[in-house]
Specification:
single chain; alpha/beta; six-stranded mixed beta sheet; 7 helices; 43% helix; disordered C terminus; binds guanosine-5'-diphosphate; binds magnesium ion
């Protein structure tokens, strides 16, 4: 978490999921308002940034969104990425059953590397739902419930729910960071209390 005058916090997020589900375009849509119909093999950028105001806590945060280019096929992600980020988007394509079925492997990969970082499940390509939907909304919802995480459907192409998804995850990350900070503070104050009690004890002993 960095502090800067333009924003209060910097939050790092990564999007994972099978190749072709639309991760790169989802990030482009959010950060640059653009969409590319081509499957751009993501070379030349690791992350993109955007400053947003969180809808509930009204904090200004800078999101740094990491893409996972070209490593998806073998899930050969640089596992350090999970240590670096504070939030994770797990994405599938609702027109592609295999991308949904592979989710268990993505969830396993995440849980092998981090325990309690906020994460959400996203079904992408909602703009194609009417004609080409293969995975139902209920299936997505059910899986997300099993993992106790929020679920959204959206589209990097039409932009539907893109801002909402990033805002929701960022809000979860923000709350998580505050809770962590408070628990560190309470551990420290307990330690200080312990020390004081010890001093009293010592003084008593010396009497
Ligand atoms: P990545 O491999 O997960 O990064 O996927 P890309 O962002 O490169 O997208 C893969 C392909 O799916 C490209 O041809 C995109 O144009 C297409 N695509 C990505 N998102 C959407 C979407 O929301 N709707 C539609 N219709 N196509 C999409
Ligand atoms: Mg990509």
């Amino acid at each position: 978490m960095q502090i800067n005058s333009d924003f209060e916090f910097q939050i790092k997020i990564v999007i994972i999921g099978d190749s072709g589900v639309g991760k790169t375009n989802f990030i482009f849509r959010f950060t640059e308002g653009r969409f590319s119909p081509l499957h751009v093999t993501t070379v030349g950028f690791d992350y993109k940034s955007k400053i947003i105001k969180l809808p509930t806590s009204k904090k200004k945060v800078k999101l740094q969104i990491w893409d996972t280019a070209g490593q998806e096929r073998y899930m050969a992600l640089n596992k350090n990425i999970f240590q670096k980020v504070q939030g994770i988007i797990i994405m599938y394509d609702l027109t592609n059953r295999a991308s949904f079925e592979n989710l268990n492997r993505w969830f396993t990969l995440v849980s092998q590397n981090v325990s309690n970082k906020p994460r959400i499940l996203v079904a992408n390509k909602l703009d194609l739902a009417e004609d080409s939907r293969i995975v139902t909304e209920d299936e997505g919802n059910k899986l997300a419930k099993e993992y106790h995480i929020p679920f959204f459907e959206g589209s990097g192409c039409s932009g539907q729910n893109v801002d909402k998804i990033f805002a929701h995850l960022s809000e979860m990350v923000y709350k998580n960071l505050i809770e962590e900070k408070e628990s560190v503070r309470s551990v420290n104050s307990t330690k200080r209390l312990d020390t004081k009690e010890e001093e009293v004890e010592k003084r008593r002993c010396c009497k």
